[in-house]
# Entry
Amino acid sequence: MLAYEYIKCSNLQEALELLESNELVYPLAGGTDLFVGMRGGKFAPKKLLDIKNLNDLKVLAEDEQGITLGAAVTLNDIAEFAPVKKYIPILASGCRSVGSYMIRNRATLAGNICNASPAADTSAPLYCLNAVVNLVGPGGDRTIPVNEFFTGPGKNALKKGELVRSVTIPKPYPSGNGVYFKASRTGSVDLATVGVAVQSWGDQVKIAIGAVAPTPVRAISVEKEINENGEKDWAKAAALVKNDISPITDLRGSREYRYHIVEVLVRRGLEQTMGV
Amino acid sequence: MTELKCVGTTVARKDAIEKVTGAAEYIEDRFLGPLLYLKMKKSTVAHGKIKKLDISRALEYPGVKTVLTGKDYKSKIGLYLVDRDFIAIDKVRYWGEPVALVVAVSEKIAAEAVELIDVEYEELPGVFDPFEALKPDAPIIHENLGSYEVVPIFYPQEGTNIANHFKLRKGDTDQGFAEADLIIEKEYYVPQMQHVPIETHKAAAHWSPDGKLTVWSTAQSPNVVRQLLAKSFELPMHKIRVISSFIGGGFGGKAGAGLEGLVVPVAQKFPGYVARIVLNREEDMQGTFTRQAMYATLKTGVKINGKITALEYKMIWDGGAYTEYGVNIVRSAGYSSTGAYEIPNVKTDSYCVYTNNSIGGPVRGFGMCEMQWGIERHMEYIAKELKMDPLEIRLINGMKNGSTTAAGQVVEDVDFKKCIETVADQIKWGKKEPGSNGKLRGKGISGLVKCPAQPSNASSSAIIRINEDGTAHIMVGATEMGQGMLTAMSQIASEILHIPVEKIDIKVPDTDFTPYEWQSVGSRITYTCGTSVKRAAEDALGQIYRAASDLLQVPQEELTFDGKMIYSTKDANKKATIAEVADSCKKCTGEGIAGPIIGRGSFIPSNMTNLDPETGQGNPGMFYCFGATGAEVEVDPETGVVTVLQLASSIDAGKAVNPQLCKCQLHGGTIMGLSTALYEEVKFDKGVMLNRNFTDYKISSIDNTPHIDSFIIETPETKGPFGVRGIGEQPMIGVAPAIANAVSDALGVEFNTFPLTPERVWKTLHEKK
Amino acid sequence: MAECVKISFTVNGEQETRDAAVGQTLLSFIRDELHLTGTKSGCEIGECGACTVLLNGKPVNSCLVLAVELDGKDLVTIEAIAKDGKLDKIQQSFIDHAAFQCGYCTPGMIISTKALLERKENPTDDDINEALSGNLCRCGAYQEIRAAVKDAAKK
# Structure
């Protein structure tokens, strides 16, 4: 690991200015992906900007816009936030699936999506909740839908000098149940072999899946069959999911198993959220 | 037998307070003094010649003291077969093999300097599976195999990749198969796994100007380390001091010697410094012992009444790049190759084969988990073909007192029947439970047995010193890696001496002070070291009585000792305190009678013999510890996820010195077995270990560990101290087969390998359809 | 060479000011600078939990925190769990139930347990699972650990 400079930012402006530097500068929130990556040679920043102290990034609020989760808020804090538990429990599920309790005391939602693993456990729930990512940078503030934020394995839509300010789950909140199923090797602290989020929106459904494509994806074919064609045979609808995913074989599972397990979990998700 | 007061009771662990307060010292905490930090440059090819090794840039890096290469080490190392270089010389045989060693003033500088070493390899064709290695035209991994020093009970074959071929021929298998009504032949495969103790391997060395070498190490066996270093570095043993500490998990991975030899030349080059090496998790996983993969063919002949008449077992083991220890696992599996069952005609061939995978070596079970996977899965096939109850098949063939093992050794003091019936009862064997919500339930059982794998003359000793105030010190060569050795030995001494456990001090080894113990491996210590401690305590007690007899003018036979007072059983007024007797016993007129009490005890097995090189017949077992595992599972056929509903484990401990700690070992071994049954598999790709950290190699955690019902059976081991036999490894052996048998029962499909990951379970079921 | 930063923090109830090298982990700082060797290194990537400490009262993997991030914070390690020579009820419970073997994971396990019992007086099995699933015990003392945690909660 090469030498780097550590800067504890005291205000957002300072952070943004430093992010514009020509050198490789990384914002540091929880560090639970960043430090592992730095140790393994994946990341080699010249400067680390500790952003945990920035009040702008510590927002954890529910208001008429929706629920806003600041970039420096930890996964445990998000999972315990009363409005999250009440209105969007699928996100609490996703958050609680990341790593261990200790990891979640440091790791942030922003970090989870910026790291942009296609298997990120918060991603599929966020996709089902119409979440938007609020960015701040040299050009000011901008907001993009979460599904546009993930651009490839380990790649996100941040432009040079930009920082995630927060993630907002806008109103209206879903009216029905949501589930996040994580298939893994151990059923305990593990990366997702696949992650399936199914969120009921009354008679409409949103389904998103992680670890089956370069980014998390919505199961568009399945959604269409249900939302537009009124399909209520969940098995039949779930069978279409193979059109929406392109899994690979890796240490955690084979392509073949991933195709299979996604279909099973989508069907079960529909059974549990869209009524039997 | 008189009622025992301490042995057989639960007392708090001797190391309890240290461990719960963080005060317990592990070896890294003892690396004190002017330190030098060592980091290895590791090979990036699995098989290759070192064409160019340029250490010049590293040597110039500020803070680097020196860089060692293979030529700085004068000899090879090896416990059973001396085939390993400390640092590769001219050739590397596994990915990650050390090719240079940087010595620097900080860990950081050492790591940076490693990057400055330039190596060029001429890659050689690699062999990554033992079948490839056995082909006549296979690349030869050890060209000089014929010249290696080898303990003469192992049979490497020069000009091949065969490091050992163990042969066993009992009875006449041709005849046995001819008598059979049914012959079943199946193949089994067990992949590599790794111990992954939470504490990785660590070692340090110090050389003083008078030529005294001090070594600190995570090694399970300081005496063997001393012996191997004495040989490799041509030093007399009294000039080598090996210091232990609490070990953060061993499981066999810290047996033998490895890192210690690496640091010695560094210490010699920089007298006065403490040269230390600490492996990180990735280095620990790919660079230290890994359990050898087993590819086996098992054929049995069985009569319609369920009696097995013949067994033919061919085991091919992936020994990895160096088999200095692995050759013995292959032998042990060979001589134990009927598992818990008595079979009159046996033909076993067990081969240790070199490959360019990671180094194979000892892991808890020492070949039993792998070999008995085959046996216990095979019993299921037999039961199914004969339409008999799998429990019944095991009872029909199970060993009893007077049975002979594969090696022809007669077993005594055993009750396998009780072990297996206990777990069968616990899981309500025979009662099939319906699954719920589309899930399928099944039950499975497995027998198990193991004897300690050790040389026939593996000895042990203990010294007990009685202090003037009646407290005592025990000195042993056994190590404490969590199994509870310190506590058990204290209890044994306490039982004999009547000195309470709280008044007994016992330390982990320091070879300058502690007496010889072969190795803390093989589930042997409570038996061997326990015997030595018992004898040392008896010796000390005898000295106490002799001195008191003289002092009190009372015959020795009349005396008794309650830990504080020695008094006559005939006249309670004739008494003396231990203080009066223990250190400087003198008459009332002033003449000295006897000096300090130093009890001495030693033990060497006398019931083990050599094995015939052609037939493998002989007595390889100091004792046989039987047990059984029972499991009930619920399987989700759509996802392949296995949920363990019940897990029952029994072990015949002979006598549990400390019932609570005995159960801890039983639980611990069962959990490790479960972890391998469901999750663990080392994955190689052309010799590169792909899953070499805890993100990619998963082990059991508290939330996926079911409750275990544990049973300590006590069929006394006549020759063991208080009837004790050792149990550290045994609980692990039966778990993978019991789980697989249960999943098989649930789903109606068969498994010839494990772990039973959700994907493997689903795939097996899916393929059947 | 590594730059040093002055940090002020409390550790086990004591106020301290030290130099921390940028790039040094909190784990390394605790062991090598503060000489508190109860906290252990097992994997360096936040998977095994042997390095668990309380940072501002919350259990974290100290291998994934920088020493410099300790500035202005409160650190509690295993050494502070026993008070005035008296074992904490959790420690006594671990002893009573033999909830450890080699002891290497134990400091982390006890820290995680301490944090659990501070946030949940009567932890359920699910609570225990969530709190301790990140503390690996290769010796397999989980059954004893669960019993010890439940027992300590009752006291």
Q: What stands out?
A: Chain B touches chain A through 21 residues (CB under 8 Å).
